[in-house]
Amino acid sequence: MAKCAICDKGAHFGIAVSHSHRRTNRMWKANIRSVRVKVNGAVRKMYVCTSCLKSGKVERA
């Protein structure tokens, strides 16, 4: 599973509980995109979550 290169956000694990209280394992995935980013003047591809993209922590190429 991919992780954000900026904030290290990835998948979270837990238990889903139905109405009848049956419990099953589940996974919450972060909204991660592969984007072209400027890093020290050079253009690289890296995995970045959308919250880092929206907040301006990353400059897109």
TrEMBL record:
Protein name in UniProt: Large ribosomal subunit protein bL28
Domain of life: Bacteria
Family annotation (InterPro entries): Bacterial_rp_bL28, Ribosomal_bL28, Ribosomal_bL28/bL31-like_sf, Ribosomal_bL28_bact-type, Ribosomal_bL28_sf
BP GO terms, sorted: translation
Keywords on record: Ribonucleoprotein, Ribosomal protein
One GO location term (cellular component): ribonucleoprotein complex
Pfam families assigned: Ribosomal_L28 (PF00830)
Family per record: Belongs to the bacterial ribosomal protein bL28 family.
Organism whose genome encodes this protein: Herbinix hemicellulosilytica
Record's keyword annotation contains Ribosomal protein: yes
NCBIfam families: L28 (TIGR00009)
An example molecular function term from Gene Ontology annotations: structural constituent of ribosome
